[in-house]
Write a structure and sequence with these properties.
Layout lengths: L1 E4 L3 E7 L6 E8 L3 H14 L5 E5 L9 H17 L3 E5 L3 H10 L5 H26 L1
Parallel strand pairs: 1-4, 4-5
Antiparallel strand pairs: 1-2, 2-3
Helix pairs in contact: 3-4
């Protein structure tokens, strides 16, 4: 499962059973830690998730900033809570790429805003799977 974690929403993606392609799921609206984890737990159960890939927001230089530290802390909480392997993956440009791809469609600006997190999660998970398959 791939996650694009923001302060208001969590974009979700899941891989096919063979781990070749990523597909988006409905974006979670964040409320509080308990609610966020309950929603994630439901997705993990429903899709029999075995691993989680979380986008790591690095600076363009590749350096880690405050947001990266927050995401590392979030990843550790996920790892402890669900007892699953959690991988942090460079998410630089994933949201920008998602926005660019969505602009190329005839989708309304409002609808694009609703699916950009989902698309970013798909790009994060797909990139991680591609790198793992090639390595």
């Amino acid at each position: 499962m791939g996650l694009d974690v923001g302060s208001r929403r969590i974009g979700l993606a899941i891989s096919d059973p063979l781990g070749i392609t990523a597909q988006g799921l409905n974006t979670l609206q964040r409320q509080n830690k308990r609610s966020d984890f309950a929603q994630l737990e439901q997705v993990i159960r429903d899709y029999q998730v075995a691993e989680i890939v979380i986008g790591l927001p690095l600076r363009m230089t590749g350096a880690e900033g405050m947001q990266a530290e927050k995401m590392q802390s979030f990843a550790e909480k996920i790892r402890r809570r669900f007892r699953l392997p959690v991988h942090l993956w460079d998410e630089r440009l994933s949201s920008a790429q998602a926005n660019r791809l969505l602009r190329e469609t005839d989708m309304s600006i409002k609808r694009r805003g609703q699916v950009v997190d989902q698309m970013a999660a798909v790009l994060i998970l797909q990139s991680w799977m591609d790198a793992r398959a090639g390595g």
